[in-house]
Amino acid sequence: MDFELSGEDAAFRDEVRGWLSDHREQIAHTRAVDWEAGGEAFERYRSWERALFDAGLGAVAWPEEYGGRGASMVQQAIFNEEYILAGAPDRINRLGMGLLGPTLMVYGTAEQRSRHLPRILACDEIWCQGYSEPDAGSDLASLRTRAVREGDEFVVDGQKTWTSLGRFGDWIFTLVRTDPAAPKHRGITFLLVDMHSPGVEVRPLVQIDGSARFAEVFFTGVRVPAANVVGRVDDGWAVAMTLLGFERGGGLYGPALFHRILRDVIDLSRREPRGDGVAADDPDVRRRVAQSYIETRVYELTVQRALTRLARGEAPGPEASLSKLYWSEMKVRLDELALDILGPRAELGRGSPEAEHDGGWYADYLYARASTIFAGTSEVQKNIVAQRVLGLPRE
Ligand SMILES: Cc1cc2nc3c(=O)[nH]c(=O)nc-3n(C[C@H](O)[C@H](O)[C@H](O)COP(=O)(O)OP(=O)(O)OC[C@H]3O[C@@H](n4cnc5c(N)ncnc54)[C@H](O)[C@@H]3O)c2cc1C
Residues 186-244: pLDDT tens digits? Predict the structure, then answer.
């Protein structure tokens, strides 16, 4: 991969930087609220997404007909980097943009693409991921939610759990069992379900940090048009795995995020008192910062290698599991370092006047525990790497 930006790419970077800088106030205004509070706070994030969409910056690598600008994957990576470094807000429709969108571009019908992709980008419809069920997480193919065909519709019954953004969802892409007699990985279908349909019930789950980032979703006799099947009936496993490739391979956490967190950790270590000086004087803190810098750089190079594959038009491979394992464990270490720098003050939560960053470091630390679980646990990623990347025999 060539690390020098072409003239066109450099001009694009300047354009994005300029736009983000012109929108500094909106960025600060949006980030000042916690979107998980819902209501007006959530709508602020939605307006921010609309501003991006109107500027053609929602997802630059998407085709123009769906609201993108047909830019290269390299330009998409440049955008992501500038976005993060500018401290811009969370992408609230990330499951639609990062996971379903690219999957529909591979497997979706023309109708599905033109119906859903522009609305995903404009953030008119928020998407959720309905994969996990009680007893079907790592062992996803054990899922039991059923869909039975009746004429031009499927009737869905069952339960999904750990549904991120469930409270805000308009649509859910989900896996349902359509042939209970088939072997475990067959007889599964990938279905798009309107969450406002009769028979869909969402129950938010409150987490250790007090937020309700996800929910349980129940389906009781939900009628879904057969036209909402993505790929072929009973052959949804291939679609599901393609989507997971997009999820694990850095789609969630790009290298720029780690550079930004590291920059903030270094800044914190230079301010936080320790002994007669500051935390940054402590040799152990310095060693861990250096180690984190090396890890962030290694991750960046790994992602660039994956990007080269995508730029050549190849699909993400099982190497995405290497990436997932790496970034999720690195995130835990970085958040632990921030907490160790803060010492006992770290535990002060949101709203406490003494809290650093309004308790954000602590909230991030708690959430980081989940990063080695969602999108596939570390143990399972190790199995995939062993078997499919290294070619070792199955257990
Ligand atoms: C914050 C968060 C958000 C999430 N959001 C979503 C979402 O939006 N949509 C969605 O569908 N799901 C979501 N999930 C669910 C997530 O994908 C699952 O939690 C994950 O796949 C693990 O499944 P499980 O919880 O059933 O654990 P289990 O599969 O029961 O695993 C329990 C433990 O056993 C280990 N284990 C299991 N099988 C093996 C094996 N073969 N070899 C070695 N060890 C093994 C696991 O690694 C783990 O340590 C979310 C989870 C979290 C924590």
Answer: 999 999 999 999 999 999 998 777 778 889 999 999 999 999 999 999 999 999 999 98
Q: Of the residues 216, 247, 295, 319, which is catalytic?
A: 247
pTM reported for the whole predicted model: 0.91
Cα of 325 vs centre of ligand 1, distance in Å, is: 13
Residue 127 Cβ inside 6 Å of ligand 1? The answer reads no
Give, as one character, the DSSP assignment of residue 47. H
Token digits of residue 101? 């969108």
Per-residue pLDDT tens digits for 54-96: 999 999 999 999 999 999 888 988 998 899 989 999 999 999 9
Place of tokens 């979706």: 108
**By the 8 A CB rule, do 222 and 200 touch?**
yes
User: Which of 321, 380, 387 has most ligand 1 atoms within 8 Å of its beta carbon, as the pocket-test mutant?
Assistant: 380
The C-alpha R_g of the chain, in whole angstroms, comes to 22
Residue 247 annotated among the catalytic residues of the structure = yes
Dihedral sign (CA 192, 194, 197, 201) = positive
Q: What is the number of other CB atoms lying within 10 angstroms of the CB of residue 53? A: 19
Residues whose CB falls within 8 Å of the CB of residue 181, separated by 6 or more in sequence, listed in order = 187
